[in-house]
Design goal:
Blueprint: H1 3-17, E1 25-26, H2 29-37, H3 44-51, E2 58-66, E3 71-78, E4 84-90
Antiparallel strand pairs: 1-2, 2-3, 3-4
């Protein structure tokens, strides 16, 4: 793994432990591991390989959340223009989520 991949892993670990404001609730790292192990959601690297082409800029944080209906990976990226962008992917199939 390169240095940037380790930075992403560290950012994910921190993001998974921090509560997110709003309707979505953070998922603990232990719960995330169980969900992946049981086949309920895809591992982060699988989701990123599917959604990465749609993400503009460098990924700086990732969190696994649930809205009560499904599990979502929330991805924050810093664009080349210096602007932050938020993306969401369904953790079950890796598809981009465009809900309002």
């Amino acid at each position: 793994m390169t240095g940037s991949h380790w930075n992403l892993v560290a950012a994910v670990a921190v993001a998974l432990c921090v509560a997110t404001p709003g309707r979505a609730e953070s998922v603990s790292p232990e719960t995330a591991r169980d969900l992946v192990r049981n086949g309920d959601i895809l591992a982060l690297h699988d989701v990123l390989s599917r959604i990465r082409p749609a993400i503009e800029g460098e990924i700086i944080a990732v969190a696994l959340e649930t809205d009560g209906r499904r599990f979502l990976y929330r991805i924050k990226a810093l664009g080349r223009d210096g602007r932050y962008r938020d993306y969401r992917a369904d953790a079950k199939d890796g598809a981009a989520v465009h809900d309002p």
